[in-house]
Amino acid sequence: MRAFRRWVTATVTVVAVAALGGCGLLGGSDDDAGGNDKVEKATVKVGIIPQLIDIAGFERARSAGYFTAEGLQVEPVTIKSATEAVPKLKTGELDFAFGNWTSFLAAQAEGAVDLRTVADGLQAKEGMTALVAMPQSPINSAKDLPGKSVGVNALVGNVTLTSKAVIKAAGADPGRVQFKVIPTANALTALQTGQIDVMSLQEPNLTMAKQKLGAKVVADRATGPVANFPISGYVAPAAFVKDNPKTADAFARAMAKGQGDLADGQTVRKTLQDYAKIDPGVANAVGTGVFPTAVDRARLQTVADLMLTYGDLKQKFDVGPMIRPAP
Q1: N or C, which end of the chain has less CB nearby within 10 Å?
Q2: Where is each SsuA/THI5-like domain found (predicted)?
């Protein structure tokens, strides 16, 4: 009987230890929270700014099941800007994040975080982003902007940077222009109510402003010195990429497929209608940019060089160490 009691006690102890260990013997939560046969981390959190045309590749990859096929479950986390994403990437609250390249490059150059590029988002194309004014405005070109206010989504970012470049290219002084931060969600209202003289808009807001307000284009933000300008993309912390190379590769492959599908304009418009819930009439009229399937080092370097020109960077910055080769 004493031997039997010792056996029962030992058996209960083993079961208790297994339970405290997260039910590992039964295939419990430890496996669910980790990876699978394809990736080190199956569930990843991705910082996303909702409804922008830039994220069409991400949304296409989700709806087409490309992430799932790579063994990934993506959890979109709403963010307002790339600037907001940076500290969340650093603390591990986000595994990947979408944002404008200008803000990510600035954070990297300042040493705020160590990032690696994972996927491209959107490259500007003439007709898809512009400075606009109300139809009755006396402002007709970039030459008329000194002394006027221009609404932008951030004082340091690709919108302000490219706006300065096209103003200077027109022979005007961007230093005499008052740039005022207007949240994207309030852009059309700010323009219509006269809170600002000119608003910088990108699709689909650009088409909405033309259709609803009769807004006129003052200057295209994808011409001259900023033609084919790289607007946005996806990054991950360098430490995360190092520890989870298969996960980063899987994310990049899924994104490349989603971006590749958008070479077809009809797919772009259908995707926009599905996730941005915009009117079909707007979706059919938007001027779409280019959705690259991989990050191009030379193209991204032009962003850093332009940032140096306009004071967003204090010294020349080499983007090379940030570039993670496509899988």
Answers
A1: N
A2: 54-261
